[in-house]
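Collaborator request log, item 7. Partner lab (contact: R.S.) asked for a structural prediction of Transglycosylase SLT domain-containing protein to inform their binding assays.
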Amino acid sequence: MTVTALTPILLLPATLVGASSSFLPAPPDGERSDLRELGATGHLPQSPRLSPQLLDRAADPQRLAEEPALDLPRGILGIPQPVLDAYVRAARSVADTNPRCGVHWSVLAAIGRIESGHARSGSVDVLGTTVRAILGPRLSGGPGIAAIPDTDGGRYDGDPVWDRAVGPMQFIPSTWRKWATDGNGDSAASPHNVHDASLAAARYLCGDGGDLRRPRDLAAAVFRYNHSESYVRTVLIWAAAYAKGVTPTPADLAPEVDDVLAGERMPAEPLALARPPAPAPPPAQPAPSQSPPGPAQPPSPPPASPSPAEPSPGSGVVPPDVPEPSIPELTPPNLTPAPTPPPASTGPGAPDHPGVPPVTSTPPGAAPPETPPGPPGAPPSPTAPPASGPEPTTPPSTSEPPSTSESTTACDPAVLARGEFTTAEPSPGTVLGPGAGDPHAVAPGQLVYVDTAGVLTPCTVPADFHP
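Returned to partner:
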């Protein structure tokens, strides 16, 4: 609901001021108005009456759009099918009960477009109730906003202190109680239901006895709905455009909504609204700077391993901090070819797979492979098992890390996307430039070969890789 400001604050009704004056400034005394001055939606009136110029132009959308300039609707005009059905059904119902009125469905569609974007683009359930409540601002007497203390106990708007316009046609609760109608035959009348709200809006427009087939009477009826000439002009322009033809757009109906105001209700206690939010708890003490590298590098005791080993059991601060920075701080660099060949043994391990999710099963196993390939003999790692073969216990431990590092190292998605890989084991001296492989031909988990710092190494396609 668009709220504009041209007049002072209005307080309605006066008997309820005491309920809210303790937490919001009371509007000036002596400023009172009848609810009829606010129309159906609670907008502050922009003008006391329609100008003769607008009444003269009411039948001509082109002239209505001239001064001040308004854009005329163009192109295909779509309305969600269930909402369009509600507009048409409401107009037909009024035509049966009040044939003299002559309200056209296109007028209801124009109002519904302005007030709620056709029930927020047709987001309704099987009965026509909006999936989420469509609420206007609190009518609490702020700048340019009417002051209407609660009249419904929060039944329609979820606010037990101030009223709010509600539903696809943005009725204020007091107006809804007068015009509430069951528009879909479910024995209930709800301002949140597009069928009920559309029929209530049609009845409201016909309530002054005019013949809405006459442009002047139609303009006057829309002005009663919202006391704004710009609003009247916009409704008449869109109604004329819709009347020429619209395209029903599909909209999936949600299951029946149990409580449209779920999550929208406000505290009934006035002071609860004024109470400042509770202060945030003090931040936890910072963890020692050496703790993150500690668990990531078990074989290097000098810098970090002694200190975290002692405080982590006794201190409650270190354990939560260790898992949090350990992975993110190792992964931010996304520069696979950056490391030079000598230190490349540790470089490709962490930066090669900056995305942690694809390597969910390997964080614990990724640390050990970084240590064995430390010496320059990382590529010919298969020769290590025979060297340590004479010892019975050594072969199992030394044979696992190389195979794990090869099978669990995830490829850099950027390298795969450029096609700098091959699916067949390359011969020495092979150059893998962009386009060497087809990114669309590989599947998650597939083994491919990439150029890592001048060395052709195998890696697996990450599970979340999408070229």
